[in-house]
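Dear colleague,

Following up on Tuesday's group meeting, I ran the structure prediction for the two-component complex that the binding team flagged. I've pasted the input sequences exactly as they went in, so you can double-check that nothing got truncated or mislabelled along the way. The structure tokens for the whole assembly follow below. Feel free to forward this to whoever is handling the docking comparison.

Inputs:
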Amino acid sequence: MLNLPIYLDNNATTPMDPRVLEAMMPYFTNQFGNAASRSHSFGWAAEEAVDYAREQIASLIGANAKEIIFTSGATESDNLGIKGVFEMYGEKGKHIVTLNTEHKAVLDACKHVEKMGGEVTCLSVQEDGLLDLAALEAAIRPDTILVCVMYANNEIGVIQPIKEIAAIAHKHGALFMTDGTQAVGKIPVNVIEDGIDLMAFSAHKMYGPKGVGALYVRRKNPRVKVTAQMDGGGHERGMRSGTLNVPGIVGFGRACELCRLEMAEDSKRIVALRNKLETELLKIEEAYLNGSKEHRLPHVANISFKYVEGEGLMMGVKDLAVSSGSACTSASLEPSYVLKNLGLDDELAHSSLRFGLSRFTKEEEIDFAISHVKEAVEKLRDMSPLWEMFKEGIDLKSIEWSEH
Amino acid sequence: MAYSEKVIDHYSNPRNIGTLDKNSSTVGTGLVGAPECGDVMRLQIEVDDETGTIRDAKFKTFGCGSAIASSSLATEWLKGKSIDEAMKIDNMDIVEELALPPVKIHCSVLAEDAIKAAINDYRVKNGLPPIEKI
């Protein structure tokens, strides 16, 4: 029996693994201590739990436990990393290089840096969503202090050549930061091998709880520091004040451990399901995959169904929980900037659906999704004037549209 | 965002989807919106030459559920109306009937534009001056 609706929006958030909840439970009740309380056993127990989680998290990404700074989530980590580096290394330079397909947390933190007197170069990606390394190299200046490029994109799942990007940044004396939110726990990420100096990531994208994330801050070769963005008790080596979210951190730790142990098996299964979904949906006439097919997370497929509008389509696939790059899904009425920055026509950007699978996705669910989407696309095309024109061989670009 | 029951009803069971012969002198066609904006409506009316009433109305829409519902409702309302009556359909009537939220008001505006464009197409075809936008 299928439970409807089927959740295929795992890039937005993942369900929490029951094993994660189990690990967290005692820290909501009996083990309620403040990890910063040094004078009694309640505090010690909390501190021990946090230390253990720090190890679990560090070991997933090949870091040292001391390099994990806990935050409220990836948005805070992105802000802390970018603004913190800008403030800490302001004397060295004021230039930051990033991408135009980054998450808003990065783009808006960069805008903030610009207001503080910094300069930001926002590079365009290529049609497949990948950064052109030559363009990166050309953009770096003597006063560049930070290159910030996401590990994998949240809308199209495209994985950037992180090692190469880090090497270019380091060659020019800049730090390399990555937003690893979508990648950590899904594909192997190793801060040493990849040459990452700072990395933002979050628990709730990898079957952990919401409201907790981390910023990895390298301690050796080079020793990186960020200026705290919040004043207070000087927790987290002075980089992030605030009482630690102990149950959240314990859950984050357990989630990382499960990912480390099960990622290889999970992703084998997930990629097979994703490929099935994708292969079947791309058999639909005028359906296109957005972003690089090869350099991509195993659980993501972003597909445009031309001549069908995304929000209308989502209403048609009401038994699926997915998201769309369509304008109508956002308050701004602008289609997805990520898809537009791939060079997609607005029209194709409006027609996209993002499918994100998880370790809990079942094959029956994918089979259902395939037929459900096919049906809805067919139904909507039957009522689409654009589809009719396309079928009559009319070039839509030849029509003078009344923009409104 | 939750849709009203009426929007869901029109979306699930759209009335009057289809195509009329756009070359016929009794048919008026209105094509409004733009693919880049995520909404295109094509609304057609067939006018009875003798009585001047709208005998049939058809639509096809590329857009969100509210856009589809707005145009579906418009065709329902147009049938049997005289051209003059049809000109009086106001987008706010559609908003009210479908309980559209503020962010979807543009869908109703588009439907009203489509009605007027279809009427004008019919008028021009039959040697009448187009009606200026009110």
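Chain A touches chain B at residues 307-312, 315-316, 326-328, 331, 333, 335, 345-347, 350, 382-388, 396, 399, 401-404 (CB under 8 Å).

Cheers,
M.
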